[in-house]
Amino acid sequence: MANPLESTHLRRIISEALSDDKHFEKIKNALSYLPSEENTEKLRREALNILRSRGIVDSVIDSVFSNNRSVFKGGSTCEYKAVVREIPFRSRAVEFDYDHIHEVGLRVDLIRGKAFIGHLETYKEFVEEEQGIVKSTVIFYASCNNKRFRSRPVPYTSDMDVNECFFIPLEDKYIDPQHLLLKHSMSLLNIVCVSRECCTGRRQLVARASIDWRRYVFPSSSAPERTTNPWGVQFSLELQSPGPDSKMTVGILELCLTILWPTVSKDACLNVETNSADDPHSAHQNVDREHLVCGPNPLPLQVVEAQLGLESARSSQRERSFVLYARQWWREFTQLREGAFAQRVIKIFANDENGCSQFVCSFIRPLSGHRILETPSVAARFVATIPCEAWHGVGAGPKEQWCSALAFVTRNRGDVPDHANLLCSLLLGFGLNAYVAIGTRQSSVSAGEDPDTSLNQASGRIRHHAWVVVLQMDPSAVLFWDPISGRRYVHQRGTPPAHPYQTVGCMYNHRSFYANIQPTDHLFHCCFDVNDSSSWRAMSSDVISSVVAYSALPLVALNPPYHKACELSDQVEIELRTFSSEWRSQRVKQSADTWFWDRQLSQALTPVLAGFEADQLRPPAELPEDTLDIEPQVNMLPLRQYVPEGFTFKAYPIQLLHTNARRILSTCLRSRLCRDILSCQGDHVRLGLRVRCYSYAEEAIVTWVMFACVYKAVL
Q1: Which of 150, 401, 667, 708 could make an SS bond with 651 (beta carbons 3.0 to 4.6 A apart)?
Q2: Collapsing DSSP states into helix, strand and coil, what is residue 388?
Q3: Are residues 116 and 158 in contact, defined by beta-carbon separation less than 8 angstroms?
C-alpha cells in the first residue's frame, strides 16, 4: 500500500496540474455541454470518457511526469540534457537510457495531430466528436533505412495527442556531422497514417509522407528554428490527403527530430579534435572507447546549404534526363512496324497515392522474407490474404492509382498492381527471376477476385491487369503467379492456356523494363525469351538503376504477424457463436433445451479447416488414378466417426479476409445452406462452429469459418 504522505503529495501534484490554465480551459470546453446540476455516477463516467477520448487525461499525466521527475524517479536526473532537448511530453513507446547509447541515431517524436477533419463528412459527425463519440482510431507507421515502427492506436479526432517516440540507428560507431550529411543522402523518413473503424475493423489510408530528415536537423535557411539543442528541431508537417482526385491537406502532424550522438566528455572532445588532424584512426578509437554526453558542433550554414542544393540539382537533372529518355524510347517504340504497337498496354509511369507520377520500376525492390515467409508459396499466400480493392474517386468507376509498399501493407488493402509489385519483390528476395507483367485478362472473373479488376469487355472498357511472371531456364515454359488468388499456372507457348490472362504488353522489375514487340501480344503465341531483341524491346539498365536507387516506394523490411492467430480465433468464434444464437432464437420457435452448441463437433471441424488452408499453399497435384490423397480422408475421419448412424450432417465452410464477427455472419447468411444449418430443426440437434485465423506477416489475416449441424430428421 502507498504511504499516506505520498498519497497526499500525489493528490496535491495532480490538483496543481488540473489547475493549470491550459488544462483547465481544455476540460471546461470539453465538458461544457454536460448538465451542471446533475452529479450521478453515469454522468461522471461519461465525463471521464470524454476527457480520455480528447487526450486530456494523457496530457495531464504527461504534465505530472515531466514536471515532477524527481518524485517518480527517486531524484535521478538525465545527464543527456546537453544534447537532447526536453520534450514536453512523456514518451510511451521507448524509454531511452542515454548513458548506454553506443551508436549515432535519429530520435523521432510524434507529438500531436492538428486539424484532422477528413473523417468528419457531416455536421452530425462533428457534433458526435464534440460529445466524445469516437468511431475510429489512428495508427502511425514509420520506416527509415531497414527499420520500421508502429504506434499504438489513438482516438481519431480533429486534435489528437500521439505521444510516440522511435529510435532509428544510423551508424554503429561515431561519425562526424559532415560524413553523416554525405552518407545518408538516400535515407528518407517515411510516415504513414492509417485509420481503423472500431465497429467494422476496416482500415483506410489517411496520409503518407516522405521527408529528408537532414533538411530539418542540419542548420539551413529552410530548416525550422531551434531553441537550445543544435541537433533537435520541432516542426509541423502538412499531410496531403490520398486519392486520385484529392489535393487537400488532411491534417498537420507536429513532430520532433533529434540526432543522438555517442560522444565523449568535453576534454576528450578537444583531444579528439586535436588528434583527428594528426591521426584520424586514433580519434575514432578514442570515440569508441569513451561515451559521455557532449555532441559535436553543427556544420556551418553555407556547407549544409551547398550540399543540399547540389543534391537537389542532381535529383532534378536525374528526373529530367529520365523523362527525356523515356519520351525518346516511347517515340521509337511506337514507330516500329509502322505504328502497330501504339495501342499495346505499355505502362511506364503510374501515379502513387499522393498523385505523383512514378516510374513503375521504382515500386520494386528485392524483399527478403527472412524467417517470416520461408517459401515462395507462403509469400504468395500472404499477398493473397490482403484484400483487393480499387481506388474510387469523384465520379463513377474505379481510378487507377498505385500505392507505396508501406502504405499498401499498413492499409491492408490495395489494387491488383499493388499486389503484383509486392509479390514480385518477395519472389526476387528468394532469388527468382521474377517480373510484373501488364496486360489484359479474359472477361470471366475467377472466384475470390474483384469483378472491377477484370477485363470488362461487355461495357467496352478494357482495364489493365497485372500478374507476376517467373522466368525459368527454358523460356518456352514460364510460371505465372496470380497475386490476388495466389494460384500458379505453367504457361507453354502454343498450348491452350489454363490461366485467365489474354495479352501481355510489358514486363518489369527493379533492373529491367521490356516491351512486347512480337507480331501479336496474345499469350498463346508469345515468346518469353527477354534476351531476344526481336521479341522484347528493353530500356537501358543503367538508366533504370539511376532512378530506382533513389526510390522510397518499396518496402524496406517485412514485419512478423501483428495478430496472435490462436487468441484471435477464440475471440472471433465466441462472438460469432453469440450472434448466431441470437439469429436462431429470433427465427426458430423452438425450446433452447432441444439444441446446443457441441464442442466435440466443433473440434472435429478443426483438421478440415487446416486442410483447406494447406491446399492454398501447394499447387494442384495431378495424381495418378490409382493413387489416393490420404490427407483429406484423415481430416474427415473424426467427423465420420462422430456422426451417429441415421443422423444427417451438413456443413458450410467459407474463407474471409477480416475478423469482424457481424460481417462474417452477414456474409454467411447470404448462403441458403448456412441459413438451413443455423435454423435446423429435428431431434437431437447439435450445432458446431469452428473459426481458424491465419496470419503470415504484417496486418494481413485470413479467416476460415465452418458452420455444421448434426440432427435426426423427423418423419
Answers
A1: 708
A2: strand
A3: yes
C-alpha span between 488 and 620 (Å, rounded) = 9
| Per-residue confidence (pLDDT) for residue 17, from 0 to 100 | 72
> pLDDT tens digit string along 147-187?
999 999 999 999 999 999 999 999 877 788 888 898 888 88
CA atoms within 13 A on the CB side of 46: 14
252 has which bridge partners?
Answer: 114, 238
Helix (H, G, I), strand (E, B) or coil at 683: strand
Alpha helices in 31-156 (DSSP H): 41-53, 56-67, 69-72, 123-130
Question: If you compute the radius of gyration of the chain from its CA atoms, what whole number of angstroms results?
Answer: 30
Backbone angles phi, psi at 652, to 5 degrees: -135, 105
d(CA 140, CA 155): 12
> pTM here?
0.79
Pick the range with the lowest mean pLDDT from 103-107, 200-204, 224-228, 478-482.
Answer: 224-228
Q: At 439, is the secondary structure helix, strand, or coil?
A: strand
Instruction: Determine the Cα–Cα distance for residues 283 and 277; give it in Å rounded to an integer.
Output: 9
Minimal CA–CA distance to 233: which of 209, 211, 263, 259? 259
Phi, psi of 298 (to 5 degrees): -65, 155
Helices 280-289 & 266-278, crossing angle to 10 degrees? 160
Helices within 54-146 (DSSP H only): 56-67, 69-72, 123-130
The one-letter amino acid code at 532 reads: D
Helix locations, 187-265, DSSP H: 214-217
- pLDDT reported for residue 425: 97
555-608 pLDDT, tens per residue? 989 999 999 999 999 999 999 999 999 999 888 877 667 789 999 999 999 999
Q: What are phi and psi of 399, to 5 degrees?
A: -115, 140
In this prediction, residue 505 carries a pLDDT of 93
HEC letters along 155-204: ECCCCEEEEEEEEEEEECCCCCHHHHHHHCCCCCEEEEEEEEECCCCCEE
List, for residues 297-348, the tens digit of each pLDDT value: 888 888 988 999 999 999 999 999 999 999 999 999 988 877 678 788 899 9
Cβ neighbours of 298 (radius 10 Å): 15
Cross-strand partners of 653:
706
What is the Cα–Cα distance from 479 to 435, expressed in whole angstroms?
11
Q: How far is CA 280 from CA 39, 103, 272, 290, 296, in A?
A: 72, 18, 9, 16, 16
